[in-house]
């Protein structure tokens, strides 16, 4: 079970990194990119082919990211001065051209036979106990920051105004107690989910009860929790409970990662490295999108004519966004190849692009925290339905896969009817203030 959860964490983090690039292009800049997989393909093939020829892995990954960014430059130069629908069409075409080149250029990519036997990061590492404990501490710090970000989002509901110093101090103490209780509820959810999947499904009910208790901890941080809670719809309550359950599953995966690092394996080391790169990329993106550069991107997304009137070079900013998002996807492609330990063109189909779109739309466009949350929800759904649906419906594997896609499509339709901006998105930005 530990090995499966570690692999699940790798896929979740890889898709989160991949989707962060798409969120920068579309969520922040408004560029419709339906061929995002092309950047991942370039990054993956460049990394593995260079590493097979003796190039150090760090330089191979950087080369893959640079080439993916150059691909974004070529796409942008030819399309960004045209209407948005041309960009969408061209990106789909480019992704298929890149895949067909990888399929037919057998001397370079070995075609359908694929590429395997390439060097893997940390594969030969045999860390001693202090190094393993240090890796666990770093992983814990990154996950702790993630839990804190979710806790902050859960508090984005109307609060009473505590203006006096004594009231502010009381509110601070109440928030600390609420956070402590919330962490205890998360711990209960993690324990119950672990026992539920490993021993008896009856424990899943306890996980749900812990998630409901976490809802009470969220509302207890306010001056008037009952009044605050009464103003929330049942859909909001359900969303908070569902997010807490998903977070419990994610922390269960974190615990599996801790055990994997303690009894070190290659997959656990790859997961740790990927989480560190994801955390660094997320941190840098947060800095950039909240800088004047990021505000220009948002203004272009809202109305590029206004940005032009303010003297901004819209074409240059769009090009930067497309190239940077492509470079991030190229890095994700390297980790995608390292996780599979084998790549061929069939692994880079357009469906992966639309899975990234699902993640961005689900979490909320123009919100990097939402992208991470969307990746978690998507892969929790994928893992849960992989095991639960066969016991509920009698379909063969091919029809079951199609049915799972239909179900997530239906869930997206419901989400768009209820929260068209996504879970963490800003509705005012989505509607351009109208």
From TrEMBL:
The keyword Ligase does not apply. InterPro entries: ABC_transp_permease (IPR001851), LivM-like (IPR043428). It is found in: Cell membrane. GO terms for cellular component: plasma membrane. One of its GO terms (molecular function) is branched-chain amino acid transmembrane transporter activity. The chain crosses the membrane at residues 6-24, 31-51, 57-77, 86-103, 129-151, 177-197, 203-222, 234-256, 268-285, 322-341, 401-418. It is a multi-pass membrane protein. The keyword Protein biosynthesis does not apply. Keywords: Cell membrane, Membrane, Transmembrane, Transmembrane helix. This is Branched-chain amino acid ABC transporter permease.
């Amino acid at each position: 079970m530990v090995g499966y959860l570690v692999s699940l964490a790798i896929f979740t983090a890889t898709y989160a990194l991949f989707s962060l690039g798409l969120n920068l292009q579309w969520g922040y800049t408004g560029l419709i990119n339906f061929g995002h997989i092309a950047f991942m393909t370039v990054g993956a093939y460049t990394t593995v082919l260079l590493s097979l020829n003796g190039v150090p892995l760090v330089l191979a990954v950087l080369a893959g990211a640079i080439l993916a960014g150059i691909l974004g430059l070529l796409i942008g130069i030819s399309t960004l001065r045209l209407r948005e629908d041309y960009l969408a069409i061209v990106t789909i075409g480019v992704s298929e051209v890149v895949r067909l080149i990888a399929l037919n250029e057998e001397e370079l990519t070995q075609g359908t036979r694929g590429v395997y036997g390439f060097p893997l990061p940390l594969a030969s590492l045999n860390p001693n106990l202090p190094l393993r404990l240090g890796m666990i501490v770093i992983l814990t710090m990154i996950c702790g920051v993630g839990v804190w970000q979710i806790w902050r989002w859960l508090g984005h509901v109307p609060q009473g105004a505590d203006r006096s110093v004594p009231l502010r101090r009381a509110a601070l103490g109440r928030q600390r107690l609420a956070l402590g209780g919330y962490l205890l509820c998360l711990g209960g959810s993690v324990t119950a989910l672990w026992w539920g999947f490993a021993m008896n499904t009856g424990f899943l009910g306890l996980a749900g009860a812990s998630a409901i208790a976490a809802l009470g901890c969220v509302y207890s941080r306010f001056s008037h929790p009952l009044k605050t809670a009464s103003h929330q719809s049942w859909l909001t309550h359900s969303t908070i409970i569902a997010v807490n359950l998903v977070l419990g599953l994610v922390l269960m995966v974190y615990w599996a990662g801790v055990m994997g690092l303690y009894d070190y394996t290659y997959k656990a080391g790859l997961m740790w490295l990927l989480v560190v790169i994801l955390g660094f990329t997320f941190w840098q993106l947060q800095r950039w999108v909240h800088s004047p550069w990021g505000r220009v991107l948002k203004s272009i997304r809202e109305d590029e004519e206004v940005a032009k009137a303010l003297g901004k070079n819209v074409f240059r900013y769009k090009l930067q966004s497309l190239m940077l998002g492509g470079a991030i996807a190229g890095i994700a492609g390297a980790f995608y190849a390292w996780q599979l330990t084998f790549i061929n063109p069939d692994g880079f189909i357009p469906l992966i692009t639309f899975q990234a779109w699902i993640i961005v739309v689900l979490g909320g466009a123009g919100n990097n925290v939402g992208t991470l949350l969307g990746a978690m929800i998507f892969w929790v759904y994928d893992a849960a339905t992989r095991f639960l649906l066969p016991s509920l419906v009698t379909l063969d594997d091919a029809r079951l896969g199609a049915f799972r896609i239909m179900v997530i499509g239906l869930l997206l339709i419901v989400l768009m009817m209820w929260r068209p901006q996504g879970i963490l998105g800003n509705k005012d930005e989505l509607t351009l203030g109208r």
